[in-house]
Structures are given as structure tokens and as C-alpha cells.
Amino acid sequence: MESILNFDLSVFKFIEDFLWTDWFDKIVPYVTWLGDGLFWILVAVALCIPKKTRKIGIVMLLAQGIMLIANNVVLKSIFSRTRPFALFNPAVAEKCVNGYTHKGKFIEGWMNEGYLTQVADELKTYSQEFISKWLSTFHYPEHIGYPYAHGYSFPSGHTSSSFAAACGMFAATTKKQKVFGIIAVLVAALIGYTRIYLHVHYCTDVLVGAVVGILCAVGGYFAGKAIIKAIEKKIGKKIAD
After folding, report:
1. What CA–CA distance (Å, rounded) separates 108 from 36?
2. 109 Cβ partners below 8 Å, 6+ apart?
3. Residue 18 buriedness (CB in 10 A; 0-12 / 13-18 / 19+)
């Protein structure tokens, strides 16, 4: 596990040293918000209205539904990975459990008390040398003012959601529409990058989140085709181009 964390730490350090910039600090909270699911759902619902894009919207919604179960319900529960900002940091873990004040507003705690035990156990599992290395190298971007992210870390939900929707769009578009799918995938990749930039996810969270999202998009595409075909056969007319 230390080898994986060493990789993640090297990515954090590279971003801190070379990629943290004042201009991106200002917009990154808005870019990362696009990955919380609502944005992609609204896009999908809008695409469901015209017959010409209805298939795209249906595939995107199905991909999002599959992602919600696979990523947020199953995988996060199985792996229960500590967020990078709370790793080896009981003081931050306590804020996640008991709540804390952010920009003058109290944010309710979202983790149960078992999170404190988990962080304490991790302090016993790793060598003191590695813990010291992590704590001295990892720096949460307090200057951006982004609050601590909720829930467990692995895989990245924002990334999975974005890639599920974007890749679902790409798969369901016609040749003439592919440019929109490509743009959506690039936006999804940017959203994934913001999760590492903000230090709320490890790089490995984002990489696996992208893979999960792509697989969910594949599932949504084939499920969408089957559902549309079944409905059209039942009612005797086309509902989507």
C-alpha cells in the first residue's frame, strides 16, 4: 500500500510545485462542481426531449444510474478509503465526524465515529518514516477555501459520474454528433483533474473512477439500446432516432 501512496504523493507534490496557479484556484471550485451528478443529469434530461437526441439522453441517465450503484453504494463501501486530507491526521478526521466551521458557516459532520478509529489504526499500520514523509509533503490547499469532501475516497464519484455520462454521450452520438461527445469526455477529464488539484482525491481514485465510469457508460449504452428497442416493438413506432 505504501507504494501506491508514494505514487499518489508524488502526483500531489508535482501539482503543488508546478500546477497550482492563482487563476485556476479561482475557477476550480466551479469546474469540480460539474461532476457532482446534477449537471450531467440535467444535460441528459434535456437531451431526452428531442427525438433526435433522445437515445443519447436515455443512455446517459442509465449510465448515471449504474454508476450510482456500482461506485457510490458498492465500491466506496467495500474499500472505505480515507480521504487524503484525513490520512494520518486525526484532527481533520474529527472535523469530518463532529463538523466544523467553514467560511463562517457550520458544516455538519458526515462520517461516523468509526472513522476516527480507522485513521488511528492507519497511524499504527504505516512506518513512522512514511507518515512523516506524507505529513510534510502533502499540503491541503487551504488558500482555495474548498471544504473537505464528504464520504470515502475510492473511487472518485465526481470522476465516475462525469465519465459515465460523457462516455455514454460519446457512444450514443452519431458521426455528425461525435464532436459533442469528445467535448464531454474532455470536460470529464478536467473534472477528474480538479479532484486531485483540490487534494480531495488521490490520483488512483480518479484513474479508477474514470475506468468505472467508462464501464458504466458501456452498460448504459447496451441497456439503453435494449430498452428503446423493446418499447418501440411494443408501441409499434420509433421513439428515438
Report:
1. 19
2. 95, 96, 97, 98, 99, 100
3. exposed
Q: Are 119 and 90 in contact (CB under 8 A)?
A: yes
**Cell numbers for 150:** 464528504
Torsion angles phi and psi, residue 106, rounded to 5: -80, 125
Query: What does the DSSP assignment read for 59-80?
Result: HHHHHHHHHIIIIIIIIHHHH-
Tracing cell 430498452 back to the chain, one arrives at 227
Sign of the dihedral through C-alpha 193, 196, 197, 200: positive
Q: Are 54 and 239 in contact (CB under 8 A)?
A: yes
Q: Residues 120-162: pLDDT tens digits?
A: 999 999 999 999 999 999 999 999 999 999 999 999 999 999 9
Residue type, 191: I
pLDDT tens, position by position, 210-229 = 999 999 999 999 999 999 99
**Cα 80 from chain centroid?**
15
Is residue 5 within 8 A of residue 129, CB to CB? The reply is no
